C-alpha cells in the first residue's frame, strides 16, 4: 500500500492525535467502572464479589475478543476496525438504558461486556500502531503520551460520573435501608435512572467520532520483517507465533499489570470505605490513583529513551510497586489510601514498557502477537474477584487480603523487566 507506514518512520502527528483521542475514550469508559462498582452496590445491595463482576465483565471481554479482533482487523483494516469498534461501543452504552428501566443487573453486565468487546477491537488496533509508527526504542514515550490522555479521562470520570451517580450516596444508602414497599421501589428506580442521560450522550459521542474517523486519512501499518540476530546480523526465520516465549511472558505480564492497576484504581474506593472513610469522599479516590499515574507518564515522556531505557523504567516501577504495597499494608486510614494511590505512579510506565517489549522482534507475527498481549487485560477481570474471595471466604483482614493478592503481581513484573523480555531471543 502506497500510504503505509513502515517501522521507524518519524512522520506520525495525525495518527498520534487520533490514537490519543481513542485512548481518552478507552480511559473514560474503562475507569467509569470504578464509579459503577459502588453505584451498583448501592442500587442492588450487592456484595463485593457481585459488584466486582463489573470489572470481570469488562476485562474478560478482552480475553475472548482480542484474537477475533486481530482477524477482523486483517479483513477490514485498521481504519474500518476503529469505526466498527466505536459503533459497538455506542451499542454497549445504549444497553444501560433498558437495564436501568428494568433494574436488571445482568443486562448492565451485558452492556459492560459489549463495551469491553469494542475496547478489545480498538486496543488491538491502536497499541501496535503506536509501537510501530516510530522507533521501537521510543515506543514507551508514544504510549506514555497516549496514556496521559487515557488517565486524564480517568481522573475526570469520578468527578463527572461520581457526581451524577453517587450524589448524596451516604444519605441515599440510609434511606434505602429503612424504606419498604413502593417507596423503596421508587427510590431504587430514581437512583438507577441516573445512568440514562450520561450513557445516551456517550453513545452519541462515540458514533460522531466514528464519523470523524471515516473522513480522516489514517494510513495502514505494514510489518513484514523477520528477526535479526544481534550477534551476527543474520535473518532469523520463524514459522510460528509459539517460537516467541517472550511474547507469552509479556502477555502474562500484562495480565498481572492490569490486575495491579485495577486493584489500585477501581478497588481503592472500596478499600477506603473499608477503612471507615465516607462513600461521599472515597468515590474520588480513583482520581488520586490516576493523578499519580499521570505524573509517571510525564516522567516517562521526558526520560525515555533519552535518560533511561524502557526496560530499566519497568524495573524501577516494579520495585516501587513492591515498596508502596508493603507501606499500604503496614499503615492505616488516609496514609494507607495515599500509598494505594501512589501505586498509580508505580504502574504508570508498565504498560508503555511491557507492550513494546512483548511484541518486539515478532516481525510478521506482530498483529497476532499484539492480540495475545491484549488478551492479558483479562487480569483485571480475575484479580478483584480473587481479592474478594480471599477476604470474604478465607476470612482474612481486607488489608492482608490486598497485600497477598497484589504483591505477586509486582514480583512477576520485576522478573519480566530483568529477564523475561529476553527469553527466547538472542539479545545482548
From TrEMBL:
Pfam families the record matches: MFS_1
UniProt entry tagged with the keyword Heme: no
InterPro entries in the cross-refs: Glc/Gal_transptr_bac, MFS, MFS_trans_sf, MFS_TsgA-like
Similarity section: Belongs to the major facilitator superfamily. FHS transporter (TC 2.A.1.7) family.
Localization of this protein: Cell inner membrane
Transmembrane segments: 12-31, 51-73, 80-99, 105-122, 143-166, 197-215, 247-272, 284-305, 312-331, 337-359, 371-390, 402-418
Designated name of the protein: Glucose/galactose MFS transporter
Coiled-coil region(s): none
Function: Intake of glucose and galactose.
Membrane-related topology note: Multi-pass membrane protein
Gene3D superfamilies named among the record's database cross-references: MFS general substrate transporter like domains (1.20.1250.20)
UniProt keyword annotations, A-Z: Cell membrane, Membrane, Transmembrane, Transmembrane helix
Species, as recorded: Pedobacter mendelii
Amino acid at each position: 500500500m502506497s500510504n503505509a507506514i513502515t517501522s521507524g518512520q518519524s512522520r506520525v502527528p495525525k495518527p498520534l492525535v487520533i490514537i490519543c483521542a481513542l485512548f481518552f475514550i478507552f480511559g473514560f469508559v474503562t475507569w467509569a467502572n470504578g464509579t459503577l462498582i459502588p453505584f451498583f452496590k448501592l442500587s442492588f445491595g450487592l456484595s463485593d464479589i457481585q459488584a466486582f463482576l463489573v470489572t470481570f465483565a469488562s476485562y474478560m471481554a478482552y480475553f475472548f475478543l482480542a484474537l477475533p479482533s486481530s482477524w477482523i482487523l486483517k479483513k477490514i483494516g485498521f481504519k474500518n476496525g476503529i469505526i466498527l469498534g466505536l459503533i459497538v461501543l455506542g451499542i454497549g452504552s445504549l444497553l444501560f438504558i433498558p437495564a436501568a428501566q428494568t433494574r436488571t443487573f445482568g443486562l448492565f453486565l451485558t452492556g459492560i461486556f459489549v463495551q469491553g468487546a469494542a475496547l478489545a477491537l480498538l486496543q488491538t488496533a491502536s497499541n501496535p500502531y503506536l509501537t510501530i509508527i516510530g522507533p521501537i526504542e521510543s515506543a514507551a514515550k508514544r504510549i506514555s503520551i497516549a496514556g496521559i490522555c487515557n488517565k486524564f479521562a480517568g481522573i475526570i470520570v469520578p468527578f463527572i460520573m461520581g457526581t451524577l451517580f453517587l450524589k448524596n450516596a451516604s444519605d441515599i444508602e440510609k434511606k434505602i435501608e429503612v424504606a419498604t414497599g413502593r417507596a423503596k421501589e421508587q427510590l431504587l428506580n430514581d437512583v438507577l435512572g441516573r445512568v440514562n442521560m450520561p450513557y445516551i450522550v456517550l453513545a452519541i459521542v462515540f458514533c460522531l467520532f466514528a464519523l470523524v474517523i471515516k473522513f480522516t486519512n489514517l494510513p495502514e501499518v505494514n510489518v513484514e520483517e523477520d528477526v535479526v540476530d544481534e550477534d551476527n546480523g543474520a535473518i532469523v526465520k520463524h514459522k510460528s507465533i509459539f517460537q516467541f516465549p517472550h511474547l507469552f511472558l509479556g502477555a502474562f505480564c500484562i495480565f498481572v499489570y492490569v490486575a495491579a492497576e485495577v486493584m489500585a484504581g477501581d478497588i481503592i474506593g472500596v478499600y477506603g470505605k473499608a477503612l471507615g472513610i465516607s462513600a461521599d469522599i472515597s468515590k474520588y479516590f480513583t482520581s488520586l490513583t490516576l493523578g499519580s499515574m499521570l505524573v509517571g507518564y510525564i516522567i516517562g515522556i521526558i526520560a525515555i529513551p533519552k535518560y533511561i531505557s524502557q526496560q530499566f523504567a519497568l524495573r524501577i516501577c516494579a520495585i516501587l510497586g513492591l515498596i508502596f504495597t508493603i507501606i499500604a499494608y503496614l499503615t492505616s486510614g488516609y496514609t494507607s489510601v495515599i500509598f494505594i494511590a501512589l501505586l498509580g505512579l508505580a504502574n504508570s510506565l508498565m504498560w508503555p514498557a511491557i507492550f513494546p517489549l512483548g511484541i518486539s522482534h515478532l516481525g510478521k507475527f506482530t498483529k497476532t502477537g499484539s492480540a495475545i498481549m491484549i488478551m492479558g487485560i483479562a487480569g483485571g477481570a480475575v484479580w478483584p474477584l480473587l481479592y474478594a474471595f480471599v477476604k470474604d471466604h478465607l476470612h482474612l483482614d481486607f488489608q492482608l487480603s490486598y497485600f497477598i493478592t497484589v504483591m505477586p503481581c509486582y514480583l512477576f513484573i520485576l522478573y519480566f523487566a530483568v529477564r523475561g523480555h529476553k527469553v527466547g531471543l538472542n539479545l545482548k
